Amino acid sequence: MQKGNISVQTENIFPIIKKFLYSDHEIFLRELVSNAVDATNKLRTLAKRGEVKGDIGDTTIEILLDADAQTLTIRDKGIGMTADEVQKYLNQVAFSSASEFLEKYKDDASIIGHFGLGFYSAFMVSSKVEVKTLSYQEGAQGVTWTCEGNPEYTLEENDKDFRGTDVILHINDEDKEFLENHRIQQLLDKYCKFLPVEIKFGTRTETVTEGEGDDAEEKQVEVDNIINNPSPAWRKQPADLTDEDYKAFYNELYPFSTPPMFWIHLNIDYPFNLTGILYFPKLGNNFEVQKNKIQLYSNQVYVTDDVKDIVPEFLTMLHGVIDSPDIPLNVSRSYLQSDSNVKKITGYITKKVADKLADLYKKERDNFISKWDDLGVFIKYGMISDEKFYDRALPFTLVKSLDGTFTPIDEYKEKVKEQQTDKYDKIVMLYTHAPDQHNTFTEAAKNKGYDVLIFDNVIDNHFMQHLEQKLGDVTFVRVDSDTVDNLVQKDEATESVLNEDEQNTVKGVFEKIVTDKGSSVITKALSPEDQPVTITRPEFMRRMKEMQSLQGMSFGDFPDSVNVVVNTNHPLVAQKLLKEEDEGKQQEVADYLYKLAMLNQQMLKGADLTAFINKSLDFLK
Q1: Binding site members
Q2: Which residues are annotated as a binding site for ATP?
Q3: pLDDT, tens digit, for every residue of 548-576?
Q4: What UniProt keywords apply to this chain's record, in alphabetical order (predicted)?
Q5: Residue 605, Cα to own-chain centre: how many angstroms?
Q6: Which CATH class is domain 397-487?
């Protein structure tokens, strides 16, 4: 038996490894299985070059759990190691065999690890680690390396009779969760689902049908539990995939999810390596809950689903996979944010997404328009948060009119410019977030020849404000923010049929009726055909309050600012109300007209609505 000391710089290396090598202890399984994949890929590379004699046979990696012995074994049938190689690669921390092999066979090797620390993650969960290995080399002798989490090790010969390496972890008392079948299955599903070598973890029961017709019989059979898909869709060429293949892969990533609208296949090898598939899910009015759906891989090794430092934030609303060996497996956020490759990848993905949307709009406009309710959330968010995406997306960003037509913003500006340009030379884009509730307002706007848009998404307040800043010559005004004559402000005035004293009398009567906090009574000369009383919500205060609510921030309590606008030229105001000599009768008329305005905005419900209807019958007599 040979004894020696592992070559390290400090006696404290193992406590450091156990606590700080990775932030999450569960990562050990990813690292060890990745090493097993490396060993298998090395063997395949040598076999291709004719350096391994004969058929390499089964290369399935096995995960073996023995709860009674408190061991977890990762077994590969890869290249194996000689005693000298064990000395070289296991006893010198951070000397990576992968780096050396990759340099030698860089033209045809696919190796995951580069830093040589992955193996030592085993000590985060183990009181002892054994490595039983036999090299592929003819006449090689099997050896066993053993270490109990300190710089001392033992190395002795064994009688292992098949090529490859068993890494046997003696799980410590603090990490017994890793002796549970469901926990290991969970980790394999998370980290190893698409590794390029088949991985077996025990067996599972499948139902098979034997025989045909009346003789058909279902039977339960035990089969190998292969936990991964070694050849996922993103590693294939787009020309080799059908739409059904893409949808099937989406279902593999997100079982039982609603099918995606469409997808983008990423495939680039210069100036960086990047493959992947990004799917556009159906978002509807969902804004926040879709994030953390993009999975990041490095050479098919799962890294994370928190990709906000690699993918622009608005793209995190997409689903799918990004795979790049140019993104290290274990790095800090600050490194990611400053790394030049990451920045290039971010820019490339943004451009590919914009190009895909532009192409879809150009070639399949009807299809694009039919998906706008889902696409709109994504595109608007992207335009707000990414300057370059804004420039690319503006030509295919649509607005929806009440009549159901969709128009690109630049075309829409020209469409309404003549009729809806105000005295400040701003093009006024009128909109509603609730067409049914604002029916009275939208009808009044249409009667004046105005077009009304629908903006009913949670992100629209931010989007409209962003467009106002970027375009400069546009302002958005909600149809209930003012009376119809003032939605598009002109240098036009209508005279009141009432004198100043009569107007003050009308205002005083309504102020006794309208007592809600934040409500103001305004008398205004409008057309006799306009509503007698209109309830409006000033644009600025309403927008501020809605944005405050959306952002979950507080800038002080914004009141529900409401203007009760009384039309002094309407006959029910100018004649009926003022002709009533009794103050109580005047208040009855004012109350009726105020409730009528509330009814027009669907603000009157339940018992209040019933009482109003009964009073209306008496009033109309």
Answers
A1: 31, 35, 76, 81, 165, 333
A2: 31, 35, 76, 81, 165, 333
A3: 665 555 545 555 678 888 888 888 888 88
A4: ATP-binding, Chaperone, Cytoplasm, Nucleotide-binding, Stress response
A5: 39
A6: alpha beta
